[in-house]
């Protein structure tokens, strides 16, 4: 029996962790999100899919306030993202994000990548941050690489470091934006394995991915987007077995 990857979530299973209500966003004149509404319950894993340009990345960036939006409301663990009173750095510290390109600090060791933000943002002591960092590296199978620089690791290893780095902040939710799309095929599995384990430990997750095997294995729900709209938002089995919209049927027929 191994220790879980994350601290246990608060016992109140159920309860909304992310509420997205009628969110619309424009880049200049171009509307890229149109009245998007969905909610993610504590401990739930929601896979977001849809064609390129449909607004998936933009929606995730709105959730952790990397992008502003003009209409609607997003609430993360009770905090309103678009409220002037909200402390955005504090909000972002509670929302872990993993991107397609790992964006590790190239000049820092793997371990220092994991301890920097907990020390600077959360005020953890060096000893405490180091211990937590080493625990997380062990959990993603990278203990032997703590003192290397990111450039010395494979893409799959770097992405596992990026996941561990996000977890080092003890986030209440994790957002993944196509975390395996930039990887060589033989490295996809090791990253998905870490994500599967995280899901099984009860982490609340929104995952943009085209890995439908992952979706089938761990998703509770699938949100399908097209042209800035949430077209389907249904239980996983309903999405794969009987997608209602023609757009989702076409999308699935192309990628499955
Ligand atoms: P997806 O992640 O589903 O591929 P995105 O959220 O990246 O889609 O993009 C949605 C739409 O917003 C696309 O039409 C894209 O061209 C546009 N877009 C994304 N980022 C910007 C930006 N910084 N400025 C202008 N348009 C953007
Ligand atoms: Mg994208």
TrEMBL record:
Q: What keywords is this UniProt entry annotated with?
A: Amino-acid transport, ATP-binding, Cell membrane, Membrane, Nucleotide-binding, Transport
In its UniProt record, a GO molecular function of this protein is: ATP binding
Q: Origin, by domain of life?
A: Bacteria
List the residue ranges forming a coiled coil, or say none: none
GO CC terms on record? Answer: plasma membrane
Under InterPro entries, the record lists: AAA+_ATPase (IPR003593), ABC_ATPase_HisP-typ (IPR030679), ABC_transporter-like_ATP-bd (IPR003439), ABC_transporter-like_CS (IPR017871), MetN_ABC_transporter-like (IPR050086), P-loop_NTPase (IPR027417)
Please state what the protein is called: Glutamate and aspartate transporter subunit ATP-binding component of ABC superfamily
Q: Which gene encodes it?
A: gltL
């Amino acid at each position: 029996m191994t220790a879980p990857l994350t601290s246990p979530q608060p016992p109140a299973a159920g309860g909304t962790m992310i509420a997205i209500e009628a969110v619309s966003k424009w880049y200049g004149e171009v509307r890229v999100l149109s009245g998007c509404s969905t909610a993610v319950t504590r401990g739930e894993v929601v896979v977001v899919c849809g064609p390129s340009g449909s607004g998936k990345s933009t929606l995730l960036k709105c959730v952790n306030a990397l992008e502003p939006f003009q209409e609607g409301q997003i609430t993360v663990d009770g905090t309103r993202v678009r409220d002037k009173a909200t402390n955005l750095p504090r909000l972002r510290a509670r929302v872990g994000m993993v991107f397609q390109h790992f964006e590790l600090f190239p000049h820092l060791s793997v371990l220092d990548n994991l301890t920097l933000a907990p020390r600077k943002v959360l005020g953890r002591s060096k000893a405490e941050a180091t211990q937590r960092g080493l625990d997380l590296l062990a959990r993603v199978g990278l203990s032997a690489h703590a003192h290397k620089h990111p450039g010395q690791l494979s893409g799959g290893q770097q992405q596992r470091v990026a996941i561990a780095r996000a977890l080092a902040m003890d986030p209440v939710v994790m957002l993944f934006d196509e975390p395996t799309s930039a990887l060589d095929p033989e490295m996809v599995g090791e990253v998905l394995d870490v994500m599967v384990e995280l899901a099984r430990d009860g982490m609340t997750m929104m995952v943009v991915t085209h890995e439908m095997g992952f979706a089938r294995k761990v998703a509770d729900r699938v949100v399908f987007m097209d042209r800035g709209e949430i077209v389907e938002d249904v239980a996983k089995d309903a999405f794969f077995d009987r997608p209602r919209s023609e757009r989702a049927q076409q999308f699935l027929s192309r990628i499955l």
